[in-house]
Automatic annotation (TrEMBL), chain A:
The lineage of its organism: Bacteria, Pseudomonadati, Pseudomonadota, Alphaproteobacteria, Sphingomonadales. CDD domains: CcmH_N. Residues 1-20 form the signal peptide. One of its GO terms (cellular component) is plasma membrane. This is Cytochrome c-type biogenesis protein. Keywords: Cytochrome c-type biogenesis, Heme, Iron, Membrane, Metal-binding, Signal, Transmembrane, Transmembrane helix. The chain crosses the membrane at residues 109-128. One of its GO terms (biological process) is cytochrome complex assembly. Residues 28-135 form the CcmH/CycL/Ccl2/NrfF N-terminal domain.
TrEMBL record, chain B:
InterPro entries: Periplasmic_diS_OxRdtase_DsbE, Redoxin, Thioredoxin-like_sf, Thioredoxin_CS, Thioredoxin_domain, Thioredoxin_ResA/DsbE_sf. It comes from Novosphingobium hassiacum. This is Cytochrome c biogenesis protein CcmG/thiol:disulfide interchange protein DsbE. Keywords: Cytochrome c-type biogenesis, Disulfide bond, Membrane, Redox-active center, Transmembrane, Transmembrane helix. Signal peptide: none annotated. Belongs to the thioredoxin family. DsbE subfamily. The lineage of its organism: Bacteria, Pseudomonadati, Pseudomonadota, Alphaproteobacteria, Sphingomonadales. Residues 42-180 form the Thioredoxin domain. CDD domains: TlpA_like_DsbE. GO terms for cellular component: outer membrane-bounded periplasmic space. One of its GO terms (molecular function) is disulfide oxidoreductase activity. Gene3D superfamilies: Glutaredoxin. The keyword Transmembrane applies.
Amino acid sequence: MRILLALLFALLALAQPATAQDLLPPAPYAYKQLEDPALEAKAQRLMETLRCLKCQSQAISDSDAPMAGDMRHQVRTRIAAGEDPEAIRAWLVERYGDYVSYAPQNKPIMWPLFAAPLVILLLAALLLRGRFRRAGIKGDGQ
Amino acid sequence: MSEPEPKRSRIAIWLPLALFGAFFALVIWGLVRPADREVASAFIGKPLPQFALDAATDGQPGLSTADFKVGKPKLLNVFASWCVPCAIESPQLDALAKQGVEIDGVAIRDRKEDVARFLATNGNPFQRIGKDDLSEVQLGIGSSGVPETFVIDGKGVIRYQHLGEIRPEDMDLILRKLQEAGQ
């Protein structure tokens, strides 16, 4: 059993290079924060609302994918150069569509989503009004 | 409470179950349906951003935006030596190059010696190969992975994006898109 396990681990070690991605070191600002805490906070807020394109349910701030690292580098260097976070978001949306941003956009397609809670509340109010009125009539009859 | 229930409520009593059934079917459909995980570029029809990349391998020039503004459509292939499907599309790229299609490459996060080894193993259909260590050009043209192939017209405008490797059955499509870009 122990030999089998050792063999398995040896195989896993051999399999490593095939699954490896690139061999380059991460981009300079992939894992390094900006020197200015205010700018870093600004960059962090933006990075938390940008989607990693390789690992699509993560934000680029959460992902260790090399491409997410390159996106963080891009965000941090642009913030450091004085660019507005929303301009960087718009730059990415222009290239990858709304999908790349986690922040809801104010577009006509979103209106049903924002309207749905109001419609449901209104329907509930109407239904309850009917119920209360009937109960009220019964109560009067007693 | 002895009076009979009104008839319509007998149908209404099934309504929640029917709604649940519909919801359940939707969930199952969402689980079973093969999901499309590719992020297509929204940058089709836009000009290439300004870039000038150093050579990705010795003996072959680097790549800049100006190389595409030559009046003739070209392919821009985004690849990497560490990317397995990139080797699969090599025969198709070679065949395109033999038919006279000009192909320029962008190597993503790659080392010179690895690019050289990749080209020696899989053939070299490229005229120029730029070295994109920070994925800057990749992000700049809306590419979300390797390999991807873009048809660029003679003015440097992106006309078509092919996601994933070019398979033998994709050749006609690529040639047609090149022809359309040349018109």
